[in-house]
């Protein structure tokens, strides 16, 4: 191995550092745009809620966390105005968590910002290199590409 090859333990650290730098940049911009209390876990939770809404149990399963932890997460999303509990049309006794307009806007703006960050990376590194890096990662990452239980795994 040469000095430029690096060490095996560096690969996951570099991948995580890249992830972290993208997320930190995105959240700094979201804070400037009126979402100062938004956290990465909120994005995962709003994804778990889905466009049709979900029960706290469903959110917990999707995130890989307990129903109680999901309930606390939903409480926080409600307090921030990103989600609301409404009567569940499938179960008269149940409550459904739905995204509010503010929650939907947060996800939409996040998606736009991710595109801007990717474009900056492509400008800095070259579009071909970024595309090749994405293709290589897709080849190495088992499906599905995105698992919502990331926040539970990190916690």
Automatic annotation (TrEMBL):
PANTHER family: MARR FAMILY REGULATORY PROTEIN, TRANSCRIPTIONAL REGULATOR, MARR FAMILY. InterPro entries: HTH_MarR-typ (IPR000835), MarR/SlyA-like (IPR039422), WH-like_DNA-bd_sf (IPR036388), WH_DNA-bd_sf (IPR036390). Signal peptide: none annotated. Transmembrane segments: none annotated. PROSITE patterns: HTH_MARR_2. This is MarR family transcriptional regulator. One of its GO terms (molecular function) is DNA-binding transcription factor activity. One of its GO terms (biological process) is response to stress. Residues 1-142 form the HTH marR-type domain. It comes from the Bacteria. Pfam families: MarR_2 (PF12802).
